[in-house]
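Next up, a chain.

===
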Amino acid sequence: MSNQIELKVTAGNHDRKYCPVSFQLLKTSLPLSELILANVRMYDKSGKAIAVQCEETKDSIVLYWLIEELAAQETMIYTVDFSEGNQKDQLKNVEIFERENQFDILIDSELATSYVMDPELAKPYLGPVIGPNGQSYTRLDFETTEHPHHRSIWLGIGDVNGVDAWNERPDYGKQKINHIQEKYAGPVFARISTEVEWTNFKGRSLMHDHRTITIYNTPASARIIDLSFTLSADYGRVELGATKEAGPLGIRVAETMSVDHGGTIVNAYGSINEEECWGKSAPWCDYYGKVGGETLGIATFEDPQTTEFPTYWHIRNYGLIAPNNLYFRGGQLLRKGESLTYHYRIYFHEGNTQEALVANRYQDFIHPPKVEVIENNE
């Protein structure tokens, strides 16, 4: 029996660039009765090694890889080799380096971002996010008096059972990491999953979230981070107020990228800046401007599976990005045991919205390429 299978990937209607792809294979269809995931390799039709990452479920194996480039309507054939004992190809890896209260994510041995869980701070945050020439896409400033709680990328809500878990004014709400559920890195991505408890200032439990952060092995000029989180009313009834001080996702762009410093906001419908984008619903918003002399941008994509899609946007000329249905749709009640789930992709790019082909990258997210096994009789 052959120890290989072939996969055909069809781009579909959209050009693909650094596009994450996954495909699930039933174990009964695999060529080996025993499988060492670390030995699985993938090659394109030219024989070039492709970074592949594998995960095992009860009944299947999930393959993950990145399509570096594939034009619309074109196809690509990949060979997946399950042979045991093969020498692994030398490919660039994503790594997680653990420090005190912090995970640093390195891509090709260079810092890409950090997940900071300092218990002295009100809440965990992700940042900075490093772009070309070491410049940060996001703001991370502990000295500013202007919105000091805006730390790069974070989760927060201004009214959780009356507690302000967005700002850091007196009696603010807190978030503490209860459990690191997963910390996993390989040649395609790094993934960190945590269980986070939301409390009032004195430590009384309000709700909890399960959040998963996935950072892909893409260049600094095209960083891709997926962020999924579920807010759960595990401790009793939770009222999320109709507050504009919310996301729950919040992103603060680099200071010089802001509209106030010459940057630009564009949403999926072509609306421009806070005057046209604030309080409007859209599947995505892009925010770009100058950072260190280069044009860099942050596009935030919402998954259509997210509740009450498309979201409204609390997005500001001074540099805040926050998809926010709570303020514009009138809050949310979670009875004990109920939950809300959100899925976002954040695309950190070089160039403006058009140059970075942001609309195409959104299609990578919501309409990924089709993958199928090539049967022997094809």
In short: The chain has two domains: 4-82, 122-365. The chain has a mean pLDDT of 93. The radius of gyration is 21 Å. The chain is about 5% helix and 45% strand.
